[in-house]
Amino acid sequence: xxxxxxxxxxxSDSGGGAGIQADLKTFQELGVxxxxxxxxxxxxxxxxxxxxxxxxxxxxSEQIDSxxxxxxPDAVKTGMLFNSEIIKVVSEKIKQYSxxxxxxxxxxxxxxxxxxxxxxxxxxxxxxxxxxxxxxxxNIPEAEVLSGQKIQSINDRKKAAEIIFxxxxxxxxxxxxxxxxxxxxDLLFDGNEFFQFESKRIVTKNTHGTGCTFSAAITAELAKxxxxxxxxxxxxxxxxxxxxxxxMIGSGHGPTNHWA
Length: 260
Ligand code: PLP
Description:
By secondary structure, the chain is α/β, with parallel strands linked by helices. The chain is about 35% helix and about 20% strand. Helix 5 packs across helix 6. The longest helix has 17 residues. It is globular and about 45 Å long.
């Protein structure tokens, strides 16, 4: 049996619900061999982020080089990248190894409010990482930052998706978690058409790490050779089931279940 491999380049969450930990658990559940390049260590639990420690830049490029020298990933995702220096080196390395199937989760601010990307890094994200992304998966506040547009309606979301597409991402997936209404609609734009992925909204405070888990599931499915729409449909079912199955861990914003 061929073992497909996926690499996550992201931050560590000591609480185990988001970041590298959520990515690896998701890869495992979806039957893909997971590898990591850690960009930052966070001291974190369900109550919030207590500390952020970026890994020295040489340490990040060396982790990617170690993987590039031996273990070609079938798909790669980026999560928390924290600053422009990290974004530049990560983008250069991905290009150097000609890795395709790149899922960019433009992690900016944790649900508790802690900044996971410095403001000075937004331009670097647009200029270096977006042009090589197979798909970018912003939530609504992140799509507002990337497009410079306020988003209130589905039409606003479509306009923002077109603007972000024009920055170079081949597919733009704007998630609906921060919108209102009973239906949860995620909107995909592939440059030609819009596709809506709809599900029932689940009201819970335990959604820590859902963005990481969703983008990791897309990455796993792309690694297995699924096309973007198939990968998103499977990832959407995976995250829906994960949120429904409330683990009730910790006294703050708890993690979702990662079991398939
Ligand atoms: N911590 C790390 C290291 C992350 O990569 C992410 C991803 O978005 C988060 C925290 C965010 O967690 P939350 O879902 O609570 O916003």
